[in-house]
Design the sequence.
């Protein structure tokens, strides 16, 4: 079974993007755009206290009359963080995302966030894992190099 550590090792860029709790939503959106990510962690006094996502903005921002330039991240962020470890299985990540209705799982190692698994990256990794299993089964069935 594949673990989150495999995602970390396979991904060339594992930078974690953060914004301070008193940052404006516009600042957070710019960080997300520059990093090409869908979420940023929110910090206060060097401690992670929440997560702000594109979805938070879509659901609780402009549609409710909150302007990005004037609204603070603290007013829209989620404080419900579901953390995982590098040893967490990919299937467990999927279960956690489903159970807690989240799309991003911060990865915690030695009390430090070392990355974030997004639902997209998880789906890609699960598909790759399944493809490998299917290929092995095909080789076995066809008798063409199962052990390779």
Sequence:
């Amino acid at each position: 079974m594949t673990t989150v550590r495999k995602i970390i090792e396979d991904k060339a860029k594992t930078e974690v993007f953060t914004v301070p709790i008193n940052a404006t939503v516009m600042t957070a959106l710019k960080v997300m755009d520059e990093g090409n990510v869908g979420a940023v962690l929110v910090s206060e006094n060097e401690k992670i206290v929440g997560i702000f996502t594109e979805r938070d903005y879509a659901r609780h921002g402009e549609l409710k009359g909150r302007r990005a330039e004037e609204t603070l991240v603290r007013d829209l962020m989620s404080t419900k963080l579901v953390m995982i470890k590098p040893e967490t299985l990919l299937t467990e990540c999927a279960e956690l995302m489903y159970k807690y209705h989240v799309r991003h799982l911060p990865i915690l190692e030695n009390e430090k966030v070392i990355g974030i698994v997004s639902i997209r990256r998880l789906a890609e990794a699960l598909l790759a894992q399944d493809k490998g299993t299917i290929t092995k089964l095909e080789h076995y069935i066809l008798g063409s190099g199962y052990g390779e």
Summary: The domain at 4-142 is CATH 3.10.580.10 (CBS-domain). The CA atoms of residues 112 and 143 lie 47 Å apart. The radius of gyration is 18 Å. DSSP finds five helices and five strands in the chain.
